[in-house]
Amino acid sequence: METNTWIYILVMAAVTYGIRALPLTLIRKEIKNTAIRSFLYYVPYVTLAVMTFPAILTATQSVLSGTLGLAAAVVLAYLRRSLFQVACGACAVVFLCELILIR
To answer: Rounded CA gap, 5 and 19, in Å?
Structure first.
């Protein structure tokens, strides 16, 4: 069983290294295609959103309170509030929703 673990780690390391090293070695010129540049520009934001969205909904005791907190955060962000105000507003909505749902 111990050797399987080391094989798994080595395969994961090789795949991770390959994913990072291949673009550096294969693409040497500046990317001029606007579609590809736009795609590569938004990849970090999309990755962050995909990783955090499920956690937002499941971090509370109910999915409803997580959804309401997310909706409050979206509305406050749309109204151009600061990050602190958005976070506090979403937390307040989740807190109040949890208080109501627990009773």
So the answer is: 21
Q: Give the Å distances, CA to CA, from 22 to 6, 27, 31, 33.
A: 24, 8, 15, 19
pLDDT tens profile 55-74: 999 999 899 999 999 999 99
The torsion defined by the Cα of 55, 48, 78 and 41, in degrees rounded to 10, comes to -170
Name the nearest CA neighbour of 72 among 54, 56, 58, 61. 56
Question: Which pair of structure tokens corresponds to residue 53?
Answer: 């969205």
**Full-model pTM:** 0.63
* Contact indicator for 92, 68 with CB cutoff of 8 Å: no
Run of H or E including 81: none
Rounded Cα distance, 35 and 97, in Å: 42
Which positions of the chain have pLDDT values less than 70?
1, 103
**Separation of alpha carbons 87 and 97, rounded Å:** 15
